[in-house]
Amino acid sequence: MRRLLSRCTLASTALLIAGTGPALAQRLSTTNLTCAQARAVVMRQGAAVLGTGGATFDRFVRDRSFCEVTEIGRRAFVPTRDTPGCFVGFTCYEPSRGDRFGDF
Questions:
Q1: Which of 62, 43, 60 is nearest to 51 (CA)?
Q2: Are 95 and 68 in contact (CB under 8 A)?
Q3: What is the per-residue pLDDT across 41-86, written as a single tens digit (0 to 9) for each?
Q4: Rounded distance, CA 37 to CA 34, Å?
Q5: What is the pTM of this model?
Q6: What does the buried/exposed string (b/e) look like for 37-59 if buried means 16 or more CB atoms within 10 Å of the residue's CB?
Q7: Contact 50, 57 (CB under 8 A)
Q8: Burial of 26 (0-12, 13-18, 19+ CB in 10 A)
Q9: Rounded distance, CA 104 to CA 71, Å?
């Protein structure tokens, strides 16, 4: 009985792991979206991880409330299908001691 239960657990775990691969590969890419669509995803979800072309991606947020307490929001411009520099929201940024106000 234990052996059968162990096989079922192993098989179901393998299926779950195999099923997550394609889901991770289907991350939204800003290069496939219009500027309005990319901005809408971030505004609707509050925070979203979006691909920005190739294998690059970043986390974009609607406002600073989605950042850690010590972080600030830095304006984020990404390439989209219809605009090379579309404002989609902000990225969270931890300012360092040498940063000047307004440089981010």
A1: 60
A2: no
A3: 999 999 999 999 989 999 999 999 999 999 999 999 999 999 999 9
A4: 5
A5: 0.70
A6: bbbebbeeeebbebbbeeeeeeb
A7: yes
A8: exposed
A9: 12
